[in-house]
Automatic annotation (TrEMBL):
Domain of life: Bacteria
Biological role stated in the UniProt entry: Acyltransferase required for the direct transfer of medium- to long-chain fatty acyl moieties from a carrier protein (MbtL) on to the epsilon-amino group of lysine residue in the mycobactin core.
Keywords tagged on the record: Antibiotic resistance
Protein name: Lysine N-acyltransferase MbtK
Record-annotated N-acetyltransferase domain positions: 11-174
Amino acid sequence: MKYELNLDGGFALRPADSSDAPRIALWMAQPHIQHWWKQDWPVERWAQEIERQTAGVHSAPCVASVDAEEFGYVELYRVRHDRLAEHYAYEEHDWGVHVAIGDVTRVGRGLGRQLLRSLADALLHAEPACSRVVAEPDLENTPSVRAFGAAGFEASGELHLPDKTALLMVRRRH
């Protein structure tokens, strides 16, 4: 899935490719990410996962940067192609986001909420038919829930997913 987005605040996204697997594997092994994502896979598996995602229509794996410094992993996905579609009344053009701040020196400094706001604004601007951007952080992942809230996402109820109890967070077009 290819998608061009213009983010503000010095943020940029670029499509991930298999050459990013070593960095993404390192980020996913960080305790603050591994606990929630449970994807501390070897480099080879990350390379395969990135190739699988880029070959399909479900999701787009990306590397996030701010002021030209790469710091995190982002997945953009169409809810209609995702298991999440089975758990809430999605709309045809809903986008979903997964974000992991891999650079531990940038965790807890408000970067996540700034990225999430910029990302949601860019998705809503790029596609007029889209009226919502959603996320489903683990209900117990307080830092993530707070970041989404600070980025303008509203809590829209609990979701009982196979691997977690999540809080559906929704950012609506204003």
